[in-house]
Design a protein that fits this description.
Homodimer. It comes from Arsenicicoccus cauae. It catalyses: D-fructose 6-phosphate + L-glutamine = D-glucosamine 6-phosphate + L-glutamate. GO terms for molecular function: carbohydrate derivative binding; glutamine-fructose-6-phosphate transaminase (isomerizing) activity. The protein is an alpha/beta fold. Helices cover 44% and strands 16% of the residues. It contains 13 helices and 10 strands. Strands 2-1-3-4-5 form a 5-stranded parallel sheet, sandwiched between helices. Strands 7-6-8-9-10 form a 5-stranded parallel sheet, sandwiched between helices. Strand 3, helix 6 and strand 4 form a beta-alpha-beta unit. Helix 2 runs antiparallel to helix 9, helix 4 packs parallel to helix 8 and helix 9 packs parallel to helix 13. It is globular, with a radius of gyration of 20 Å. It binds 5-amino-5-deoxy-1-O-phosphono-D-mannitol. 5-amino-5-deoxy-1-O-phosphono-D-mannitol binds next to helix 4. The site of 5-amino-5-deoxy-1-O-phosphono-D-mannitol (M6R) has 16 residues, from helix 4.
Length: 369
């Protein structure tokens, strides 16, 4: 069933163009307007929402963190992202104008289910973004928006992650369209950009030879750091999680702006650091700010592996390796920059001779609290 691939994880990484395309399929009408009738929620209830809380665990949590930037930007609705098990056992401010979006590939994660039940008790409107038709979480929620990534077998989540971001973007654009305002007009243009992503992911997947080579060289590495800013920050966290889970390497993701507040003390000669660059046309000079972070860590001996857009000359003087992805808009970039990090973890774990699909101590679906 692995279709000639060394692992299900490898196969699922390669399935991402289709997973994203299928998740977008049938969600717009002939004019390009978003249609999410399947959610079956009274549009007036959605118009009244004044806060969104995304609850999830693990990789699904990082997909929520990635989507938050775009959802707030497009909808102007305050959006929080919280680990489901933390949300459940504090005293969150939730009422009938709160939309609680749970994100779960399996739809069976107990921590996430308990968070959804709690949100419902508090009167929230609950929507499940899920990859498994008819699973417990979508059944317990007021509405479901399915990702169509197909079954994910490997314990380490890959195609579900990118499909979850795509589904969150659909929800964000739908809310923007429904509520009117500036971004309602832009929703169709953004949808067209989103529709091009599968093809760009395919391009990235076709250019991973060097990343695989780097991974094989690094199979003895003890620690890898990941830096990102803005939408690249959750990608750094997810890249680190992939490496911990399947390659058993100590890995940590940081917000690049946080470097000087502590983590820079970790930098010593030879320390490998992946940097997930913001798009060159990111707001507030973010790109230049991260270039100067790379400069700082390079000066302290870090080995810098930079994931950035094609044509980014500014990073070159400070990069030991440049890993390029096609140019897209700011919000689309995470869907591309995660790919090399997935490939890197998968290849490194394979090179170490580990069981990539069934890493030690982990289960595909965590059905206990
Ligand atoms: O099925 P879910 O999306 O609810 O699972 C959530 C996490 O357990 C899951 O993403 C986990 O972190 C993966 N092993 C990550 O690769």
């Amino acid at each position: 069933e692995k279709g000639g691939h060394a692992s299900f994880m490898e196969k699922e990484i390669l399935e991402q163009p289709k997973a994203i395309a299928d998740t977008l399929l049938g969600r717009t009408d002939e004019d390009g307007k978003l249609v999410l009738d399947e959610m079956n929620i009274d549009p007036d209830r959605l118009r009244a929402i004044d806060k969104i809380i995304i609850v999830a665990c693990g990789t699904a949590f990082y997909s929520g963190l990635s989507a938050k930037y775009a959802i707030e930007h497009w909808t102007r609705i305050q959006t929080e992202v919280e680990l489901a098990h933390e949300f459940r056992y504090r005293d969150p401010v939730v009422d009938d104008r709160t939309l609680v979006v749970s994100m779960s590939q399996s739809g069976e994660t107990m921590d996430t289910l308990m968070a959804v039940k709690h949100a419902k008790e508090l009167g929230a409107l609950t929507v499940s973004i899920c990859n498994t038709y008819g699973a417990t979480i979508p059944r317990e929620s007021d509405a479901a928006l399915y990702t169509h990534a197909g079954p994910e077998i490997a314990v380490a989540s890959t195609k579900a992650f990118t499909a979850q971001i795509a589904a969150c973007y659909l929800l964000g654009l739908y809310l923007a369209q429904l509520r009117g305002g500036t971004y309602a007009e832009d929703a169709q243009a953004v949808m067209r950009e989103l529709a091009e992503i599968p093809q760009h992911v395919d391009t990235v997947l076709g250019s991973m030879d060097r990343v695989r080579e780097i991974a094989r060289f690094m199979s003895d590495t003890r620690s890898v750091l990941f830096l990102g800013r803005h939408v690249g920050y959750p990608i750094a966290l997810e890249g680190a999680l992939k490496l911990k889970e399947i390659a058993y390497i100590h890995a940590e993701g940081f917000a690049a702006g946080e470097l000087k507040h502590g983590p820079i003390a970790l930098i010593e000669p030879g320390q490998p650091v992946f940097i997930v660059m913001p798009a060159q046309d990111s707001p507030y000079d973010l790109h230049a700010k991260v270039v100067s972070n790379i400069q700082e860590i390079r000066a302290r001996g870090a080995r810098t592996l930079v994931i950035t857009e094609r044509g980014d000359e500014a990073v070159r003087p400070f990069a030991d390796e440049v890993i390029e992805v096609p140019r897209t808009s700011v919000m689309m970039m995470p869907l591309l920059s995660i790919i090399p990090l997935q490939v890197f973890a998968c290849e490194l774990a394979t090179a170490k001779g580990l069981d990539v699909d069934q890493p030690r101590n982990l289960a595909k679906s965590v059905t206990v609290e």
